[in-house]
Automatic annotation (TrEMBL):
Location of the region described as Disordered in the Swiss-Prot/TrEMBL record: 1-23
Source organism of this protein record: Aquila chrysaetos chrysaetos
Domain of life: Eukaryota
SMART domains (UniProt xref): PKS_ER (SM00829)
Segments forming domain Enoyl reductase (ER): 9-319
Name the UniProt record assigns to this protein: Crystallin zeta
One Pfam family linked to the record: ADH_N
GO cellular component, one term: cytosol
Keyword Nucleus part of the UniProt annotation: no
Record text on subunit structure and interactions: Homotetramer.
The keyword Ion transport is annotated on this UniProt entry: no
Name of the gene encoding the protein in the UniProt record: CRYZ
Compositional bias annotation for Basic residues: 1-20
This protein's UniProt keywords: Acetylation, Cytoplasm, NADP, RNA-binding
Subcellular location: Cytoplasm
């Protein structure tokens, strides 16, 4: 495969110079001209060096690319030059004008969605589906509470859960965020900045509690989550920024579960299952990514600061090269 990869935001070597570009594996590569790239909190963790999964250097962040195929490897048959696509992972990094991805991480982007929306699918929607069904065993008729529902993963979870027949509750930190949550599938929204919002959730759910909680900030909410669960309820740990102390007896009293979710551990079969469901959702019209803040590639540092320290999420953050 031939193709030129231009600007990229890479981790610098200790001497301050950009290291040589990595060599790409020959098996079924696809070169994509990037029109938009999603920004995810995990990329800030990896960049900081404090994440369990440490990539080889030089490291260019970015998994969720949307763009147009420039060229493909000789064994790639599913795609061709000019196809609109989105990815769930890249080999070379998505914070760039061009990105290389393995063909099994590339999916067709429907004309129903623009490139910014395409860049909002990868990690958010695949994580949401995995948390709900592959790990959370969600069933139609059950209730789900989405903590931090106005962000990329939260909106994805609300849309998927509503389409699959669950009763959806969501939290957000602003009035605007709550409205976004309600417009994207939630039956009820709560402001998690209010001191008594937990009491409001308990009042709404009554004695039954919540069957599943999708938790984006476990280091803050996990102990309280255990108080909100139904018998046999599950907390799905999607995100955490530190430790928290809990009482294990709170899991015993309801035989509830705390289950970690990591998209990096999905199998090829699980990825195919998820992709099939989501592509069907796009065609059916219920999968509609909400794009929030947009940044030019040159402002990626600002984007990383804002995704961690913003006062309230409002859709998926994207870079536009």
């Amino acid at each position: 495969m031939r193709g030129r990869r231009r600007r990229a935001r890479s981790v610098r070597t200790p001497r301050g110079r950009c290291a040589p570009r990595p060599r790409f594996p020959p098996e079924q590569p696809v070169l994509i001209q990037v029109h938009a790239c999603g920004v995810n909190p995990v990329e800030t963790y990896i960049r900081s060096g404090n994440y369990a999964r440490k990539p080889a250097l030089p490291y260019t962040p970015g998994s969720d690319v949307a763009g147009v195929i420039e060229c493909v490897g000789e064994h790639v048959t599913a795609f061709k030059k000019g196809d609109r696509v989105f990815t769930t992972g890249t080999i070379s990094g998505g914070y760039a004008d061009y990105a290389v991805a393995a063909a099994n991480r590339v999916f067709p982007l429907s004309d129903k969605l623009d490139f910014r929306q395409g860049a909002a699918i990868g990690i958010p929607y695949f994580t949401a589906y995995r948390a709900l069904f592959q790990k959370g065993r969600a069933k139609a008729g059950e209730s789900v509470l989405v903590h931090g529902a106005s962000g990329g993963v939260g909106i994805a979870t609300c849309q998927i859960a509503r389409a699959c027949g669950l009763k959806v509750l969501g939290t957000a930190g602003t009035e605007e965020g709550m409205n976004i949550v309600l417009r994207n599938g939630a039956h009820q929204a709560f402001n998690h900045r209010e001191a008594n919002y937990i009491d409001k959730v308990k009042e709404h759910t009554g004695m039954e509690g919540v069957d599943i909680i999708i938790e984006m900030l476990s280091n803050v909410n996990l102990a309280t989550d255990l108080q909100l669960l139904s018998y046999g309820g599950r907390v799905m740990v999607v995100g955490s920024r530190g430790p928290i102390e809990i009482n294990p007896r709170d899991t015993m009293s309801k035989e509830s579960s705390i289950i970690g979710v990591s998209l990096f551990l999905e199998t090829e079969e699980e990825r195919h299952e998820c992709a099939t469901a989501l592509l069907d959702g796009i065609e059916a019209g219920w999968l509609k990514p909400i794009v929030g803040s947009e940044y030019p590639l040159e402002k990626v540092v600002k984007a990383h600061e804002d995704i961690i320290h913003s006062s309230g999420a409002r859709g998926k953050m994207v870079l536009v090269p």
